[in-house]
Amino acid sequence: MKRAAGIAFVIALGFWMGGLGVLSFVLAPIAFREAPSREVAGRIVGSSLRTFGRVELACAAVALLAAAVRRRERFGAVRLAGVGAMAVLAASYVFWVYPEAAAARGVSESAFAFLHRLSVILVGCNLVLGVALM
């Protein structure tokens, strides 16, 4: 059981971090370079992030469960706390920042800019935490 939990933990974090990395460092730059306008690129990237948010939450659930199974092992409590923090960060940008940014786009450029910066910071924190935990 503990071995399976360890494998599930690594797979969940790997899929989560890999997806965030691809969206942040591959899709977004290509979309803003190749799309016919910044508006189109923003819609593509925003939609991709919102869609991947559901995958992130599923990965967070699997990683949390796996970390809970292995919490009594060496660094188990650290893994559990780290994934818990990542889940809170992900939930904050999936349920709050992304919807607010989508609503602010075209209505309030300053609000959108703030929410965009905030999402970059939160996703960046999750990437750093996730890589450290792996």
SSE pattern, N- to C-terminal: HHHH
> Major beta sheet, specifics?
none
Q: Helical proportion?
A: over 70%
Gross morphology: elongated
The portion of residues forming beta strands comes to under 5%
- Pick out the low-confidence regions: none
User: What do the pLDDT scores average to?
Assistant: 93
**Total DSSP helices:** 4
Q: Please tell me how large the radius of gyration is.
A: 16 Å
Overall description:
By secondary structure, this protein is mainly alpha-helical. It contains four helices and no strands. It has helices spanning about 1-35, 40-70, 75-105, 110-134. Helix 1 runs antiparallel to helix 4. It is elongated, with a radius of gyration of 16 Å. The relative contact order is 0.14. The model has no long low-confidence stretch (mean pLDDT about 95).
Q: Brief description of this entry?
A:
By secondary structure, the protein is an all-alpha fold.
Helices and strands in order, then pairings?
Blueprint: H1 2-34, H2 38-69, H3 76-104, H4 109-133
Helix pairs in contact: 1-2, 1-4, 2-3, 3-4
Annotation keywords:
mainly alpha; 89% helix; single chain; 134 residues; elongated; 0% strand; 4 helices
